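Q: What changes when magnesium ion is included in the input?
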Amino acid sequence: MIELLSPRQIDQMRPAGRFVADVLQQLRGRVEPGVNLLDIDAWAGELIARRNARSCYVDYAPAFGRGPFGKVICTSVNDAVLHGLPHDYTLRDGDLLSLDFAASVDGWVADSAITFVVGDTIDPADQRLIDTTRTALDAAIGMCTPDHRIGDISAAIGATLTGAGYRVNNEFGGHGVGRTMHQDPHVSNTGRPGRGFGLRPGLVLALEPWVMTGTSTLAVDPDGWTLRSSNHGRTAHHEHTVAITEDGPLVLTLPDEQT
Ligand code: MG
Ligand code: MG
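A: The predicted holo structure follows.
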């Protein structure tokens, strides 16, 4: 069932959006070579406790995972792209790190992900992965107006990713978000314009283009969660929670100073 929220309910989602954005920004500011993925999970846990929020990941137990997840944030490094289970790994200069964080504040959920390079050594190919997924996310957000359909969002993402020379995996994509993390509709990262559910004010979507180098096939780690590119090519992932309003897209997962 696709749920439409009132303008007042969308306003009620704003604190969750800001919190998720602020946590990602704070974590990014603290990550440097020598930081362990378990440190990041612990820091996120402290921020969650201080805000009296709830991580959507800690109890997350979908059919495909070896649930429950048990950690509060996803940390995916280099060839890992989705659902990276924090484990004892110390980050190095040049590592490509994706942080995916979803939390509930006052009963409303926001979901966002960022990818960045740890330290000062940035491979141009990594920068291109990052830039491509951000561009795809911007293109998707641009479609979040009441005159478009879900297929327009999917097509915009797919065109950006394939236009940059990457193949698209359709197993995981965006989704509705509201009182829970994963709601209808599914938003594939490839699709046909003009198809699917017609966007209308009150629909809130988590849009999340992600990409892998040289493959569209995933492999799962022995931990039962972490998804990597099957060829160990490097990866990137960006996500925002976006409300469709009469006035156009409202990105809820921006840090305080940008809202
Ligand atoms: Mg997410
Ligand atoms: Mg999501």
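Observations recorded in class: DSSP finds four helices and 14 strands in the chain.
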